[in-house]
Design a protein that fits this description.
The complex is a heterodimer of chains A (438) and B (284).
Chain A: H1 4-36, H2 42-53, H3 57-68, H4 72-96, H5 100-108, H6 113-152, H7 154-164, H8 168-194, H9 202-212, H10 220-230, H11 237-272, H12 279-294, H13 297-308, H14 312-336, H15 340-348, H16 353-364, H17 366-392, H18 394-404, H19 408-436
Chain B: H1 2-14, H2 21-25, E1 30-35, H3 43-48, H4 50-60, E2 63-67, H5 72-81, E3 86-89, H6 91-101, E4 104-109, E5 117-122, E6 137-140, H7 146-158, H8 163-166, E7 168-171, H9 175-183, E8 189-193, H10 194-203, E9 211-216, E10 224-227, H11 233-244, H12 248-257, E11 263-265, H13 272-280
Parallel strand pairs in B: 1-2, 1-3, 6-7, 6-8
Antiparallel strand pairs in B: 3-10, 4-10, 4-11, 5-8, 5-9
The chains are: A mainly alpha (438), B alpha/beta (284).
């Protein structure tokens, strides 16, 4: 295995994530300050950011290729747009939570709305802002692998290419490298939570990334013409007839995937909970969950499409495997947090640890378990549209096929349908959240 | 040149990933050559094609960057927005790129002028003719592939098989993937590029004892090297003459990378038959 030909994709992945995060913070923070200052049009900007965030990153990458050409620049553009929306929205919310008395005392001095945000809210929220910036970078690393799958370069592109070239050994090496990177970045995130200023280490990486992924072209006029030619969105009779099936398949991928994940996560979560399992076993299971979590759904999907064939089964399994890792960790924490007294009472009856876990741990932690699962379902409804694009069926696959065959009117129709689908899923998620809130 | 030198030092300062430098630093005056990913697209496949890149750089007196996008569509869009100067396209991809962005056909292999698709199946399968495929599972390559989708689709239609109604088919995304799907028995049969088939058989990547060809399509025009529309004619000429100068006696390694023996000039008029078929099947 030649190390050099791994270094380029690894660098591209880090560069895309760093540069994307840097642009997102640079654009998102002022937007957030503007929103937090409740300046004119703030509400509209806030809603626009929310709407932008509902366009899947993979779709953004397809559009970005038209503007800045193939290669990492397209990835940086897609990530920058997606994370500007995320950072802007979250920063605005963080700035909004700064305690009112601090701000009111500033306002009393006659300070303008902007100086209140700049000198009042910003310093008090700075720790949260740094921590969230690092979190955005963690997410962007996984996302940069995902956008690579449509040609943005980096590890994602390498994985797709290696699968098509049947070089499965290289696929395995690339996934191992990816797990390693995610592990290091997660560790970095944990350090930032302890020492927020460390988040500034992303800045030099981002700058180097920006220079390294300088676009080959910036075809603005070409892009405007190409996008304009996509209008209006059109679905012919055949596509319209197939639409309900496609939407059902996407729902199926999300629901079956989340269900499978919850099923496995309950078992794995109990074994990973230090209270119920011997320490070495709990440790080993936790590491397995870490690995499941570090490989993005799209990457799992790419492999499963080869293994089990194109279609919704591959998508559901991909979501299931990744989500099992995420939910397993959350479930483990939930059962660890149940009151000790209740479990001691069970133990006093002579119950073994399996019985205690089954009849004590799970029922007592049921609230958080259901809550985590529902949140995951919302996430998976969005991701189901994305894994579709790599051959897992449903609306995503319809979108990708029409894009690949240059049926751009049809593609635009699918983009809009996907967007509506994700927005509905988010609205549904919010409704659940408010119902569950005490 | 000055700004690229500045970025060189900035990147060098960034440290550990010096490997990416030559590519990033020289972007400004580099010729960018793309190839459709008909047999996968990785850093390994780009490294394997290094002799081709060096040959072009020497002949054209320019730095050459070789790029394999992950899909056919991205290759065409890259020619449209100018992020690729030259590209190796399949017949159908060429027609799409020509219709959308007026790309100019330059050269092609002698073999591209009478190309064939092969229908393959397992050695012990009962399949003998295209008509036997009714109701069977089947693999096409990429949806935009001429020899992996368009021409096999047309051949099936001529044999009275409507792929959409009569076959349970899927797109594998590449010719090698189609061969492997057939070899593993995941599908009853598949259609693929004859040059990829020959090279996989010769290199041992495919198992001769497991696979057999049961139908070969009539000849059609396939792959071609093109230039983007507004590239300087002198550049187009230099690129074309580089390929026309390739001989087996002198340039065997490069011709092997290109899976060919000799290059000739290509022209758009000869693609009319393929254009008619693609239009009829609504793939153009």
């Amino acid at each position: 295995m030649n190390v050099l030909n791994l270094a380029i994709p690894v660098w591209q992945t880090l560069a895309m994530a760093g540069a994307g995060t840097l642009i997102a913070v640079a654009l998102g923070a002022p937007l957030a300050a503007y929103i937090a200052a409740r300046a004119p049009g703030a509400r509209a900007i806030y809603l626009a950011l929310g709407a932008l965030r509902a366009i899947p990153d993979l779709t953004l990458a397809i559009f970005a290729v038209v503007v800045v050409g193939i290669g990492p620049a397209a990835g940086v553009t897609a990530l920058a747009v997606f994370y500007t929306a995320m950072v802007g929205k979250m920063f605005a919310e963080l700035l909004g939570t700064v305690s009112r008395p601090v701000l009111e005392s500033l306002e009393a001095t006659g300070a303008s709305k902007f100086s209140v945000v700049l000198f009042g809210a910003l310093p008090s929220a700075s720790t949260d802002l740094l921590t969230f910036g690092a979190y955005a970078f963690e997410c962007a690393i996984r996302a940069s692998v995902v956008v690579g799958a449509v040609g943005a370069g980096g590890i994602g592109t390498e994985i797709v290419g290696s699968i098509n070239a049947l070089d499965y050994r290289r696929v395995a090496v690339l996934i191992a490298v990816l797990v390693g990177i995610v592990w290091v970045v997660d560790w970095f995130g944990a350090q930032v939570r302890r020492q927020p200023l460390l988040a500034l280490a992303i800045v030099p990486l981002g700058v180097a990334g920006l220079i390294g992924s300088k676009p080959v072209v910036f075809a603005a006029a070409h892009a405007v013409k190409t996008f304009a030619a996509m209008w209006p969105p059109v679905l012919d009779a055949r596509a319209l007839a197939a639409l309900p099936v496609a939407i059902f398949e996407t729902l199926e991928i999300a629901v079956v995937g989340t269900g499978l994940a919850a099923l496995f996560a309950i078992q794995l979560g109990l074994i990973a909970a230090r209270r119920f399992a011997p320490a070495p076993v709990a440790y080993a299971v936790r590491r397995v969950l870490d690995v499941l979590r570090s490989v993005p759904e799209v990457v799992v999907g790419l492999i499963l499409v080869v293994a089990v064939g194109i279609g919704p089964l591959a998508g559901a399994l991909a979501l299931g495997i990744h989500s099992a890792g995420v939910l397993g960790k959350l479930f483990a924490e939930s059962v660890e947090n149940v009151p000790v007294a209740a479990l001691d009472a069970l133990a006093a009856t002579g119950a073994g640890s399996v019985a205690i876990a089954t009849y004590g741990g799970v029922p007592l932690a049921l609230g958080p378990i259901v809550e985590h699962t529902l949140f995951r379902l919302e996430w998976n409804l969005r991701t189901a549209t994305v894994v579709g694009m790599i051959g897992a069926g449903g609306i995503g696959q319809a979108l990708f096929n029409s894009q690949q065959t240059f049926h751009y009117h049809e593609m635009l129709a699918y983009v809009l349908i996907t967007w509506g689908f994700v927005l509905s899923a988010e609205a549904l998620g919010k409704r659940f959240a408010s119902t569950l809130a005490p | 040149m000055h700004s690229s030198r500045k970025s060189f030092f900035a990147l060098a300062g960034a440290g550990a990933f010096a490997a990416a430098l030559p590519r990033a630093a020289s972007a400004a005056d580099t010729i960018r050559v793309g190839m459709i990913p008909d047999a996968g697209a990785t850093q390994v496949s780009i490294d394997e094609k290094a002799p081709l890149r060096e040959f072009l750089a020497r002949h054209m007196q320019r730095l050459v960057d070789l790029i394999i996008p992950t899909n056919y569509n991205a290759t065409v869009e890259a020619l449209g927005n100018g992020s690729l100067d030259f590209a190796y396209l399949g017949g159908l991809t060429y027609l799409q790129a020509h219709a959308r962005y007026g790309v100019i056909p330059l050269v092609q292999r002698v073999s591209d002028r009478a190309f064939h698709s092969l229908f393959i199946t397992q050695t012990d399968s009962p399949l003998k003719a295209l008509a036997d495929l009714k109701g069977k599972t089947f693999a096409f390559g990429d949806v935009n592939s001429t020899s992996g989708h368009l021409m096999p689709y047309a051949a099936l239609q001529a044999a009275g098989i409507d792929a959409d109604a009569d076959l349970k088919f899927r797109y594998t995304g590449s010719h090698p993937a189609t061969l492997k799907a057939v070899e593993a028995g995941t599908v009853a049969a598949g259609a693929m590029d004859e040059s990829v088939y020959a090279s996989m058989m010769a290199s041992g990547q495919a198992d001769k004892n497991k696979i057999r060809v049961f139908y070969r399509t009539p000849p059609f025009l396939d792959y071609v090297w093109v230039a983007r529309k507004d590239l300087a004619p002198s550049e187009q000429f230099a690129f074309a003459t580089s390929f026309l100068a390739l001989t087996e006696a002198k340039n065997k390694p490069i011709l092997d990378i290109l899976r060919g023996t000799k290059f000739v000039r290509a022209n758009d008029g000869e693609y009319n038959e393929l254009r008619r078929i693609a239009t009829k099947l609504k793939m153009l």
